[in-house]
Amino acid sequence: LPGPSKWPKDLEMALRESQDHWSKEDILKLLERMENNLPSNERHTFKTTQSQMDWGKVAFKDFSGEMCKFKWLEISYTLRKFRTLKELVLEAKEHAKKLSNSKKHRKHPDFPKKPLTAYLRFFKERRPQCSQMHPTLSNQQLTKLLSEEYRELPEQVNWGGEVLIDCW
């Protein structure tokens, strides 16, 4: 099969639906079962060995041999292929372990947000006033007007909300 970008749309949609429920443990189990079903004296390219693999023996849980094959095709698409299938399976295992660990690294929900820049504080405070004074201006024109007004502020003025410039 060609890469995902060359798959027919209906096959691609079916693959996405069937492949969405693979957990990290399931992927590692698939790779382990593939590794156990590889011939011990493998000297063929990965494509030859992959085409000769008995996917029925690889199947486990609710995953059919066909589903396992498609998941392997999805995993192997990003790997270098000038090696044996055994080497690819080992690399895919390492990749699966690293990939799932990086997804868990997320910001803590109580982590404070970054403070607004001086320009954004100026913009948030001045926008309602300028939009009332110029109701016919579009959002883009209003933003342009406020950015020009901000640029004209003297550099030594530290915008802290106290400085108010009349919107002409």
What would you say about this model in short?
With 168 residues, this protein is an all-alpha fold. Helices cover 57% and strands 0% of the residues. One of its GO terms (cellular component) is nucleus.
Note down, in words, how this protein is organized.
The structure is a single chain. With 168 residues, the chain is mainly alpha-helical. The chain has 2 domains: 4-104, no CATH class; 114-168, DNA Binding (I), subunit A (Orthogonal Bundle). 57% of the residues lie in helices and 0% in strands. The chain has 8 helices and no strands. It has helices spanning 9-19, 24-36, 46-52, 55-58, 65-76, 85-104, 118-133, 139-151. It is rod-shaped, with a radius of gyration of 29 Å. The model has no long low-confidence stretch (mean pLDDT 77).
Approximate shape: rod-shaped
What is the helix fraction of residues, given as a range? 55-70%
Q: What Rg, in angstroms, do the CA atoms define?
A: 29 Å
Strand content: under 5%
Structural class: mainly alpha
Average pLDDT over all residues: 77
Unreliable stretches (pLDDT < 50, length at least 5) are none
H-E order: HHHHHHHH
Extended strand count: 0
Could you describe the largest sheet, including whether it forms a barrel?
none
Report the total helices: 8
Distance between the termini: 65 Å
Number of domains: 2
